[in-house]
Structures are given as C-alpha cells and as structure tokens.
C-alpha cells in the first residue's frame, strides 16, 4: 500500500502490534506466575543496612528543593527550543515572524520566573 492510506495502515499495524505485545505480556505473566506465592518470613520487615531497625518505620521527609527541580526543567526545555532557533535564525526565510514567536516564548518564561520571584519561591530558606 502506498499513498495517503498506506501511512495510516502502517500506523494501524504498529498500534495493533503494540496492543498485542501488551496483552501478551500480561497474559504470560498471569499464566506463568503462581496463584498464591509463599512469602518468606520477614519479607515485609523494614531493612536497615543489614541490622534490625531502630525506632519506627515511618519518618516524614521534607522535600524543599522540588521547586528548583521544576525551574531547572523549565529552563532546560527553554534551551532545547532556543538553541535550534539560534542556529537557523540567520538563514533566509526566518525573518521577523520567528523573532516575534521566540520573543513571545521568552516573555512567557520571563513571566513564569517573575511570578516565582514575587511569590518568594526562589529563596533558599
């Protein structure tokens, strides 16, 4: 099959193959795994470097730096879009339209960093 419908047929076959692999993997797991596996003694006990645990098994952790991780991802994505744009910027056909598009993109990111700064998200305390 070639032409317009050929690409949809290829896409349909790939989708069908992926669904069959997914269903086959779960079916094989269901058929080959034991129904009621015997659990070894102590499997669900807390493990602490090979010695018996001291104290309780629940501790609350404070994740303080997730905002910085989000901001890093935001600006890494910005770099992914800015570098290819900068490479092709001086070529013919990439005129004022691309400058306006990238200015809007950078302005939206600048608004995001301004919002984070005004909400005092960027403080280390």
Automatic annotation (TrEMBL):
Pfam families: Oxidored_q4. GO terms for cellular component: NADH dehydrogenase complex; plasma membrane. Coiled coil: none annotated. It is found in: Cell membrane; Membrane. The keyword NAD applies. One of its GO terms (molecular function) is NADH dehydrogenase (ubiquinone) activity. Its EC number is 7.1.1.-. It is a multi-pass membrane protein. The keyword Nuclease does not apply. Keywords: Membrane, NAD, Quinone, Transmembrane, Transmembrane helix, Transport. Gene3D superfamilies: NADH:ubiquinone/plastoquinone oxidoreductase, chain 3. InterPro entries: NADH_UbQ/plastoQ_OxRdtase_su3, NDAH_ubi_oxred_su3_sf. It catalyses: a quinone + NADH + 5 H(+)(in) = a quinol + NAD(+) + 4 H(+)(out). The chain crosses the membrane at residues 6-26, 67-88, 94-117. NDH-1 shuttles electrons from NADH, via FMN and iron-sulfur (Fe-S) centers, to quinones in the respiratory chain. Belongs to the complex I subunit 3 family. This is NADH-quinone oxidoreductase subunit.
């Amino acid at each position: 099959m070639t032409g317009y419908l050929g690409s949809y047929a290829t896409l349909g076959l790939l989708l069908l193959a992926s669904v069959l692999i997914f269903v086959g993997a779960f079916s094989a797991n269901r058929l080959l795994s034991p129904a009621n596996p015997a659990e070894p003694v102590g499997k669900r006990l807390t493990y602490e470097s090979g010695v018996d645990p001291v104290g309780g098994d629940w501790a609350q952790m404070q994740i303080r730096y997730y905002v910085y991780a989000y901001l890093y991802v935001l600006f890494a994505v910005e770099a992914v879009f800015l570098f290819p744009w900068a490479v092709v910027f001086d070529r013919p056909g990439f005129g004022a339209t691309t400058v306006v598009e990238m200015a809007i993109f950078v302005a939206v990111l600048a608004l995001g960093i301004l919002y984070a700064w005004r909400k005092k998200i960027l403080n280390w305390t």
